[in-house]
Amino acid sequence: MTEKAKREYKTVEHGPYDYRNDTLHPVVLKNYGKWKHHDNPRPGVLVSVAESGDVLYTVRAGTARQITVDNVRTLCDLADKHSEGYMRFTVRNNVELMTTDESRIDALIADLEQAGFPVGGTSNTVTNIHHTQGWLHCDIPATDASGVVKSMMDELMHEFRHAEMPAKVRLSTGCCAINCSGQADIAVIVKHTRPPRINHETLAKTCELPKVVARCPVAAIRPTRVDGRLSLEVVEEKCMYCGACFGACPSMEINHPEHSKIAIWVGGKNSNARTKPAIMKMVAHGLPNNPPRWPEVNKVVKDILMAYKKGGRPYERLGEWIERIGWKRFFEETGLSFDVDMIDSYRMARTTFNKSAHIRF
Amino acid sequence: MSTKDNPSNSNGKFLNPTPILDDLEKGPWPSFLTGFKKLAERTKKTMIRGVLDQLEYSYKTKMGYWKGGLVSVVGYGAGIITRYSLIQDKIPEAKEFHTMRLQPPPGLHYNTKMLRELCDIWEKHGSGIVCMHGQTGDLMLQGVPEQNVQECFDELNRKGWDLGGAGASVRTGASCVGPARCDDSCYDTLKVHYEVLKHFTGLVHRPEFPYKLKFKFAGCPNDCVNSIMRSDIAFIGTFRDAIKVDNAEVKNWVQKNGMDSLVNNVINRCPTKAITLKGEGIEIEDKDCVRCMHCINVMSKALSIGSDKGLSLLMGGKSHLKVGSMLGSMIVPFVKAETDEDIENLIELLERIIEWWDDNAFDHERLGETIERVSLKEFLKGVELEPDINMVNTPRDNPYFKAEF
User: Fold this and answer.
1) CA-based angle A55:A58:A61, to the nearest 5?
2) Do A138 and A276 fall within a single domain?
3) Do A279 and B325 lie within an 8 Å CB cutoff?
4) pLDDT tens, B28-85?
5) For residue A39, which residues of chain B lie inside 8 Å, CB to CB?
């Protein structure tokens, strides 16, 4: 009898942790669904006013996302001291502590800063970066995630602490070209530049061949025999180096220390405010995967941000700024160069062509 | 977890040198590395030492070294992300580094008691490394050996925690701050998230679909959880009646921010030109308003969402693989989500949609890809939804369809 079979405890399939089980700050609970308006009096501080007249101040601070039980306990100590024992996280890995006492905000900020959690990330700042797992934990990454974010945020610290951008700025990074790379005003995403390298020794033993064939978006993979062994081959003229097959089969190695490059995408937006949500567009590629600080990538991100900071009008998200000034001027103002690989050649390419006589000189 | 066999180095430290990684301890932003190193030196956990050695090796060689596998808890087929090191011969201490995905409370609201309990259980059985949070919305406990997984899970489960999804399952949900602290929330994101994920919990734990299926819950069209791109089925709050205008507050706003700001930043930025200046106040033509949220965002005190609130369902959002990034598109323009009956009806509709997708999708095909391949028309027929002009930007601009006869 195995250990597992002897187990007496019966699992309860709770689903999500029950938020009604005392997870909400008492003022939040009292005014649940009865808030009147909110404001952002200074970077890192939000104020919510309820119909009851209650006022709740929220202080937001950045975390490294990859944290430890020690970091969580430190935050718990601060929440017990300042926030009635409650805290909240944002989807961008920021932590939020709440107080009803305006006079305690400065002490709360000082304690967070002292504990290593920088306060900021609200309204028109560059907030914390949405990121993936990378070399720390993922099984298909071409680069790291936490390290890329650390190096990038080190350089953007001023923008995290000060709301000086025309509108909010969301960044994200992704370690492969297929799955988790999030949409953002600026997204940093791996782009492979060579077909997968096939390990014929292990392939048929490790992978389900039809599944790998079916995974390819351009039907570039087909069955073959190598030295009498069943295996797969890649039609290199068709392959566009997405790495989808690698996700299905570790014997189709796509990652490479030199040939896996980094691309930068801009203008993504999920909010419906003003313009409709938009998918980001690629404006730089072939940048080296250069740990531990990725200086080439960070320079491009900063150049784009500074051009936007200078030229964007109030409330204009990065993509809306580009929409107004046009892509030609975007490339001029950022110092980036447009090339033939930025012209779409995939399924919906025609939707991106300029079907008009509108041109900019 | 074993902390035996952990002799210190010749430099008197528990950890081995990691000269490349150490650069990431410099600079003002919080360093994940500093956290890991402190934790390792305090707890003397050999797994963390191995993981840092392997990460250093990744930084040196610019390659990753983890492979997946199959580890689970009794009765579940998902929730543990298995990681074995590919370089165990070099770095045996990082042999196993499995992750437990936990479903956090909707809206990511916590109390310190539950977090302290979590930390104690996790430090006892695992590495003590935590990710708050993954992009899908999980709270991830990173670094547990297979032999500790069941006991760790049982202890967590006794305290109300459950595993999240992985692979071809319904995934952990994510919701915005919602009515807990936001005046723009058009439905109770926390409640709907909780009820929907609770209902589909069997499908979270036991993957049986063509591919993954994600839900995200945003209280208003500002979509703070990025549901339109990051979920197959996005619940985006909206309202049917007019924006409420308090013209006394508009006047106060103008006094503070200036008339030019009202004209340039509010009236001119309305996407459908629904706002006109009227005396010292504004008027909004409700029939022209598309509920984009911009004016409400700018003038939170003067303008607010209407009273007839509900949500829209957008479907098909996903990242690149394999047709390119896709945004969700409008499928159900408006549905109420207030009473228990409303939520039951919503779940019934979701069941129809999921069943249709399960029947029609190819292997590894997300909902949006299936809809695109078989056509929105076939999808609507399959799930018994009526066509609505809000589903498209324009009617078709080609004549090729099968007419009824």
Assistant:
1) 170
2) yes
3) yes
4) 999 999 999 999 999 999 999 999 999 999 999 999 999 999 999 999 999 999 999 9
5) 300-301
